[in-house]
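It is worth pausing here to work through a concrete case rather than discussing structure prediction in the abstract. The textbook approach is simple: state the sequence, then state the predicted structure, then interpret. We follow exactly that order.
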Amino acid sequence: MLVDDEKAIHKLMSVFLAMNEKHAFTLHSARNGMTGVELYGKLAGDGLKPHLVLMDLRMPMMDGVEATKRIIEYDPEANVYLFTAYTRTEVEQDALKAGAKGTLNKAANWHMTVDYIITILESAGQGPERCAFERIRDMQLHCHVNTVSVRDKGVVHNAKIS
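Step two, the predicted structure:
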């Protein structure tokens, strides 16, 4: 499950998860923390508890710290990881204290991000771990009116934003 207020991030995550040929993913999306908390509860109540929640920190209506706290209160075993560009900040530390298990940096290479998502999913149930990707400079993100283009190691990936 992805909780992020940026439409382009949802589209990019869908594109990069779909590019992985070894695994099939179902991505549930919420555009703010409040909707994320509600969606997590609904999915869990329907027997479809998300195996992983990627949580942005800065969003309207409810930020990622509060949303993480509420999801963990509802389900102490929830597998919440921060997905943010605000690493090594006080707000990141607050979210980790609220129960997030680690951090994935939005500025990282998206192929590596998907690989790390797979690693998290494969090791679910083991102890919490702290991981943060460092900024990789060979990735450039360009947002246009209705299209997102990602240049990743010389390959351009385009995605329509609906």
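Step three, interpretation. The first helix runs from residue 7 to 19. The chain has one domain: 2-135.
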